[in-house]
Design goal:
There is one protein chain. The chain is α+β, with helices and mostly antiparallel strands. The protein has two helices and seven strands; from the N terminus they run ββααβββββ. It has a single domain, classed as Roll (Structural Genomics Hypothetical 15.5 Kd Protein In mrcA-pckA Intergenic Region, Chain A), CATH 3.10.290.10. It has a five-stranded mixed β-sheet. It has a two-stranded antiparallel ribbon with strand order 2-5. The longest helix has 10 residues. It is globular. The relative contact order is 0.31. InterPro entries: S4_RNA-bd_sf.
């Protein structure tokens, strides 16, 4: 599992997907969220604007990133 450190204490899900390299663009982030293949802490998430904090784990197609 990779880790992604946030500077301001929180990051939005769409931003994390791009910054962590799970998707290439904001459009790709929107598409995978609409497909229902992204989970946060084990639950499917479809909101790009979901705020993530330290300890949250985002998973997309078997790749996971923990927010630190």
């Amino acid at each position: 599992m990779d880790e992604f450190q946030v500077k301001d204490g929180m990051i939005r899900l769409g931003q994390l997907l791009k910054a962590a390299g799970l998707v290439e663009s904001g459009g790709d982030a929107k598409a995978v969220l609409a497909e229902g293949v992204v989970s946060v802490n084990g639950e499917v998430e479809t909101r790009r604007g979901r705020q993530l904090r330290a300890g949250d784990v985002v998973t997309l197609r078997g790749e996971s990133v923990r927010v630190t």
